Structure formats: structure tokens, C-alpha cells
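Checklist before submission:
- one chain only
- standard amino acids only
- sequence pasted in full

Submission:
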Amino acid sequence: MSDSIFNPEDQLGAVSNKIVAGLERISEVFKVLLWEKAKANGLSPLQIQLLIFVAYHKIELCNVSHFAKEFNVTKPTVSDAIRALLKKELIEKDFSSADSRSYLVLLTIKGKEMVSATENFADPIKNQLLKIPSEEREALFNSISNLIYKLNRTGILTVQRTCYGCKFYEPKETTDYCQLLEKDLYTTDIRLDCPEFEEKAR
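Returned file contents:
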């Protein structure tokens, strides 16, 4: 067989292969932690992700079409999750949009309580990251943020709201700059999910 990322022999001396294999392991940990929290609260992983997303994002992003893009699932799958959350009285629909066929999703009081109970599912990963020296964490974040941007630019990652893809972002020789905030951007200032994000022209 040709060179494979998942063949231990092909990982020898191939750092890129090792990184991809490592990211796959971490993604498995993320899924396991999410599943455990979902089962403990009688929800599906997607239902938890939808609740958390609604809690922390602009209302105009909280609709079926955007959820499908955000979580890389079909609209029917999102609709099924929304029906389940409505039945559990964790969300409600807002039909105030000009388009009577569409609606926005809002959290109920029970929904906000569920977010508080479930949003810490990834804390075990964060706790291990906090044990890594700050300089190494900064370098790791820099690599991840650049990888996310490049995956989006190639069409593999459909949704991203990172500085690198924003029209307000201005790369410079030493320190990058945000035209909206009118401030220099250091590595730790780069956002992966910016509320003011506006996609720049490709």
C-alpha cells in the first residue's frame, strides 16, 4: 500500500503524519467526552452542541440552515434535533423573521440550565493543556488557528470565524492588525470564533 497516515511504519520520520494521527486521537477524546455528557443528561451529542451554540452566538446564526453548515450535518438531521429539544422544552422557536417559512432558535430557562450542566464536557482536555508551558500553548494555538483557516480556504471546513478569514484582518511584518478594533493582534489575540467576524472576499 502507499504511504498512509495511519500506518505506524509510515509515521516514522514523518512529523506531519504523526500530527494528523495525534489530532485523530484527540478528536476521539472529544467525541467520547461529549457522548458521556449526552448520555448523562438524556440528550444526543448534536443536541448539546446546538444548545451551547445558541447560548453563545448571535441570534441570526441560530437557524436550521446555519446549524447544518456549522456542524456538517443535513438540515433534516438538524430539524430532528430541534424537534427533540422542543419536546424537552429546552428551546423555543422565534418566527419574528421577515421570512415566514424560517425561524430562529432561542433557549428557554430549562435550556439555559442544561447549558450550564453540559458545557463543561471538554474541561478534561483544557485541564491537561493548562499543564503545558504557556509558550508551548501559544505555539500550539498558532498552528491550530492557521490550520483551521487553511482547511476553510480549501473547502474542507465549511464554517470558520477566525481572524485570518475576516475582512478586518490585516497581516503585517511584525504584528497583525484588526481594522475594526483598531489594535495590533498578537498570537494570543487571534480569535477562532469572533462575534464581529465578516468574511473577506476570496
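Reviewer check: The chain has two domains: 32-118, 132-189.
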